[in-house]
Amino acid sequence: MADQSDKKSFKKLGARHKARRRAVDLLFEAEARDIDPADLLSERVSLSVREESIAPINPYTRVLVEGVADDLDRVDGTIESYLSQDWTLPRLPAVDRAILRVAVWELFHANDVPPVVAVDEAVELAKELSTDDSPSFINGVLGQVVGVAPQVRAAAAATRATAAPADDE
C-alpha cells in the first residue's frame, strides 16, 4: 500500500512540475508579446475549451499565472532587490525572469509548497530551459528571498485576517 502512495506522490510532483513549466512558458510568451499574462491565460483556457485537440490548462498553472500577474510589481521589486549590482531585471534572460517570478510568487503565497521545493523546482526549470549559468544564479537569488518569505507570508495572512471582517459587512 505504501508503494501506491509513493507512486501517487511522484505523479503529483510531476504534475506540479509540468504546471510550473507551463506557467513559465505562458509568462515568457506574455512578456514577448507584451500582453497581460492573465489575458494570455484566459485566451489559452478558451482555446482549450473550443479545440479538443488542445490540452486543458492545469489548475495550478492558472493559480501561478494569475498570482504572478496580480502581484507582478511586488514580485519584480523583490527580485530586483536581490540582484547583484551588475544586474537589473530587464538585463536577465526572459526565461530566467519568468522562472524567478513563479518561484518568488510561490515563496510568498503558496502555503502548500515548502520553500525548498519552490527553489528546487526553479533550479530544475533553469536547467531545462535556460543557460548553464542560470541554475546557480537563480538558486543564489532565491536563497536570499527565502529569508524574507516568512515575513511576507505573515504580513499577507494578517492583511487577509484584517480584511475579512470588512468583507462580511
Structural class: mainly alpha
> Which value, in Å, is the CA radius of gyration?
17 Å
- The low-confidence runs, each spanning 5 or more residues with pLDDT under 50, are 1-12
Average pLDDT rating: 89
- Approximately how much beta-strand content do the residues carry? under 5%
- The general outline is globular
Please write the string of helix (H) and strand (E) elements: HHHHHHH
Q: What separation lies between the terminal Cα atoms?
A: 49 Å
Biggest sheet features:
none
Q: Note the total helix count.
A: 7
Tell me the helix content.
over 70%
Per DSSP E runs of 2 or more residues, the count of β-strands stands at: 0
Put the structure in a nutshell:
Helices cover 79% and strands 0% of the residues. It has seven helices and no strands. The longest helix is centred in the C-terminal third of the chain and has 35 residues, at 134-168.
